[in-house]
Design brief:
Blueprint lengths: L1 E5 L3 H12 L3 E5 L3 H6 L6 E2 L3 H7 L5 E4 L5 H13 L5 E4 L5 H12 L4 E8 L4 H4 L2 E5 L2 H14 L5 E5 L3 H29 L6 H8 L8 H12 L15 H11 L5 H13 L5 H14 L7
Parallel strand pairs: 1-2, 1-4, 2-3, 4-5, 5-6, 7-8
Antiparallel strand pairs: 6-7
Helix pairs in contact: 8-11, 8-12, 9-10
């Protein structure tokens, strides 16, 4: 099947390679021509501009957008809305906020252009293992592009979630759950590390992968990290976030759903970014004030 791919970062480039291995015809574009040219030996056709990519595709066109959420994807989708024709389809495979996704779908629909939102999970391992794909939008358009989803995903690894926005909505909640799972592993291994015993944390992680109820791919990644650096001495204790956890917590607030674990996991990431905590200093000062408890000097 023929597809245009816009955005060739780690995810977009690997997805392109997986599709090429499945014998799809791929036209690729990135603001930096280097990653587009790098895919040419694998069979991709590099375009210098979005307009060139659109012109190269047969109608009705199918274009996958794999750029960061927010202004980058907004700019690309808006630009495509100006140059695509009625009946063409845009697929947003990034982690866009589902509210913005619905608005983009309405904007393109007014021009006769179809829009699918595809929550994509699999990270840098997806090239070999496949990607879990959660797709929202018109079901008949989903069926039209299904060979692409089938090639990108492992067996039973893709599905149509519902109308526009549902793909990104389900992926948002998926990532919120991921925050909680990761935080649970982090806290558990920190307790093990602080214990009175000289435990081999890599060995523990490896052991738990066999028959344990906490075995998972995330635990496998912990095992790999601990094998390379048992005390994680090369890594700073700073944890970023790309937005989905915040959106999940906000959705829980909006729906009156008590999401204690997911909320605490998000706040733990905020705490990791503080060089010093003013709040912790105030707590220490209050303890000294009412109870005479010792304050640690700076």
């Amino acid at each position: 099947m023929q597809l245009g791919m816009i955005g060739l970062g780690r995810m977009g480039a690997n997805m392109s390679l997986r599709l090429l291995r499945k014998d799809h015809e791929l036209f690729v574009y990135d603001r930096d021509m280097a990653p587009a040219k790098a895919l040419e030996p694998a069979g991709a056709k590099a375009a210098a501009t979005m307009e060139e990519l659109v012109e190269a595709l047969d109608r009705p066109r199918n274009i996958w957008v794999m750029v960061p959420s927010g202004p980058p994807v907004a700019a690309v989708v808006a630009a495509l809305g100006e140059i695509l024709d009625e009946g063409d389809c845009v697929i947003d495979g990034g982690n866009s906020n589902y509210h913005e996704t619905v608005a983009r779908g309405e904007m393109l629909a007014a021009r006769g252009i179809h829009f699918l939102d595809c929550g994509t999970s699999g990270g840098i391992w997806g090239l070999e293992n496949g990607y879990c794909l959660m797709v929202g939008g018109e079901k008949d358009v989903f069926a039209r592009v299904e060979p692409i989803f089938e090639s990108l995903a492992p067996p039973a690894g893709y599905g149509h979630m519902g109308p526009s926005g549902t793909g990104h909505y389900v992926k948002m909640i998926h990532n919120g759950i991921e925050y909680g799972m990761m935080q649970a592993y982090a806290e558990g291994f920190e307790i093990l590390d602080a214990s009175e015993y000289e435990l081999d944390l890599h060995e523990v992680a490896a052991l738990w992968q066999h028959g344990s109820v906490v075995r998972s791919w995330l635990l496998e990644l912990a095992e790999i990290a601990l094998a390379d650096d048992p005390k994680l001495a090369s890594i700073r204790d700073y944890v970023g976030d790309s937005g989905e956890g915040r959106w999940t917590v906000q959705e829980a607030i909006d729906r009156d759903v008590p999401a204690m674990v997911l909320t605490q996991a998000l706040y733990a990431r905020f705490r990791s970014r503080q060089q010093e905590s003013f709040g912790a200093k105030l707590l220490a000062a209050l303890r000294e004030g009412f109870g005479g408890h010792r304050v640690e000097p700076k």
